[in-house]
Specification:
- The protein folds into 2 domains: 91 residues, Nucleic acid-binding proteins (OB fold (Dihydrolipoamide Acetyltransferase, E2P), Beta Barrel), CATH 2.40.50.140; 307 residues, 2-Layer Sandwich (BirA Bifunctional Protein, domain 2), CATH 3.30.930.
- 30% of the residues lie in helices and 26% in strands.
- The chain is built from 11 helices and 16 strands.
- A hairpin with a 2-residue loop joins strand 8 and strand 9.
- Helix 3 crosses helix 4.
- The longest helix has 31 residues.
Amino acid sequence: MIHNRVPLSDLREHIGRTVTVCGWVNALRLQSTLQFVIVRDNTGMVQVTHRRDGGPLEARLQALTPESAVRITGRVIDAPQVKLGGLEIIPETAETLNLAATPLPIDKQTGPEQRLNWRFLDVRLHPAAQLMFAVQTTLEQGMREYAYAQGATEMHTPKLMGTASESGAEVFELGYFDRSAYLAQSPQFYKQMAIAAGIDKVFEIGPVFRAEPSLTSRHATEFTGIDVELAWIDGVEDVMTFEEQMLAQAIAKVADTHGEAITEHFGVEVKVPTPPFPRLTMSEAHEILHKSGRQREVVGAKGDLDPEGERSISAFVKETTGHDFAFITHYPVTVRPFYHMRPANDAHVTLSFDLLWNGLEITTGAQREHRHDVLLRQATEKGLSPEPMQDYLNTFRYGCPPHGGFGMGLGRVLMALLGLDSIREATFLFRGPNRLTP
């Protein structure tokens, strides 16, 4: 039984009535004649006002500490003089559910690494952090709604693999009974197997593991990926269209649900993008950077974009089109995996793309190579042995249709959406090269 708990945001509907509220002690002002307790839950705050009378309720309130969990029953009073919402509760009973130790290990001035050590308190003390998770929920809901409306099937693929996925680099190896196993860098191969299994559109929102020793603001060793794969496509353009429509719908849902709160807590306006997003080939991107003087060295279409290059290209797109998003397409073969399809008229590039949002790469995608003989040749060109990939290669021997897809990092999407400085802020419990706790 939850004692008919009333959220603090609903108290105005209960003026003159006795209610039960639950929350944390946000602040205490214990004066000679009055005791003021500010109680906070995840919907708001209220002032509890008690006149000292020497009774057990006075003693109970006097013993409280900041951040203690309490349950208070009392009458809701309309009190215009109270700055906090113009209401107060005159308590009848108070129960200390969990007395918080003092002093607290962090406060609002604590540095980011120490805050991560006490992440549950960090989130509790910062309304913006709690809002971020509400935004994440709405964003995922919007993406799922779009995918479902397109007839996509949600899948849950294994995170334990018998062989290292993709190139075999940057994977976590672990003991698996009498042999080694690997944590999946991506659901990529399994998504493709689902396509070959006759499931036309596939998506998954789940954990991804990357053994990258990168100590940057946008890398994590474990993150949530949003992965999509589409069958019977006419080309990579179909994949980009699906993604931009999915993002536009999800961001619109976030704007409708949380737009005002995001502006209040994060100081940013949620701008709903209008598809189609601008598209630039990698060759065109390098040419733009070269002409603008933003890149010292350009090697045709052979080079990838570094983070500074991505920011510069996004700035150019913003200046010339007003758009916050930009697809960079036709990445060179040298920087793309063997399973990306290559156009018939240019063996040096791939039918692939990255999506940038305000200078941050949030997605990598491509049309996949679905022809077994071509796939085998491209793997060999990359120096990969076909034997460990036999289960994957077998997927394409028995009538696999043309297909393509993308992988999007949820944390990076939240960074771009909310203007966050680090992926650590966009994750409940961050995992990086130097952090495995809490």
